[in-house]
Amino acid sequence: MKGFTADLYSAMLFAVMLCGSLVAAYVVMYLFQHVLKRFQEGLPHAVMRRVREPVLLLAPVVTVLTALPLARLSPAPAQFVYHSVLLVMMATLGWLCIRLFDAWRDSLLQRHRIDVADNLQARRVITQVAILRRIAMTLVLISSVSAMLMTFPGVRSVGATLFASAGVAGLLLGLAARPVFTNILAGLQVALTEPIRIDDVVVVEGQWGWIEEIRSTYVVVRVWDLRRLMLPLSYFIEHPFENWTRHTADLLATVTLYVDYSAPVQELRDYCHRVVRDSGLWDGKVWAFQVTDTGPQTLQLRALMGVQNSSDSWEIRCLVREKLVDYLQRNRPDCLPKTRIQMQAGEQQGVPP
Questions:
Q1: 3-class SS string, 58-109
Q2: What's CA 105's distance to the chain center, in Å?
Q3: Sign of the CA dihedral 149, 154, 157, 158?
Q4: pLDDT tens digits, residue range 139-157?
Q5: Of the four, 26, 104, 156, 227, which is 20 to 30 A from 212 by CA?
């Protein structure tokens, strides 16, 4: 009877400690959130919002590991409970590391907005953080799973055997995993050298679009017609491509027009300038209207306009092209391109009247 009472007392004490740790974790989290309401949004708010679930899970897990001797279980059940709780703690610690990284990312996104006109710095930060987060998640996942597996004696012995005879197997594994590691290293290089960023306007494989996602091993390019082009990260290191927003989103939009030699260039220049000025798409910086080439039958005119982004570039090019053609059709149809045929005096003989 005395032994039963002692076991009951130990079990009750174990349960009280477990519940107390959980309640204490809730209280501490509540107090921190209440205190942080007085401050502006920032890293502390992001940390509290992200780590709430892992901390609430970690508190009872640590308590179980600490108070397990009080339960006075037999060796086999005690070892099973200890091993299970240890595995949960390792997984929770990995989860907590990822959530801390996410909190840091959230605080950066609050300070760097991508929905503004001049978003070069924001796109740089978002791209670097996105790549580093996926690399960090991969490293944390590998480390957590490796640590959990090493708690099994059988896995440790197998690992030692494989490590002792890993010559040819390691070589074959390295060759098989070479594309994966190549793209991971390319991701680090992209994050450091920044050949592309999120929302960059690029031309790759003859396709014009935006960088929509940068994943661990590949990049998603959203083509102008809403198709998605998937390319490995190593592509942007090993192949040439066009980046229209490398340093700034500003672009020069061009429109080429072919007209007859009799076309009044100054009149067309004045009209084109009015169209560009009233369009609401011109940035007011760069403007030109020039004769860029002369052919056997036509003049080549080029309008050059500065715009703030690629979308405005497309819109103003279509607008200026349409307005110039409409102006020539309505006011100067004789200036549209035409083909001239000159017939000599003897060449008309034999032609029926």
A1: HHHHHHHHHHHHHHCCCHHHHHHHHHHHHHHHHHHHHHHHHHHHHHHHHHHH
A2: 13
A3: negative
A4: 888 888 878 877 777 666 5
A5: 104
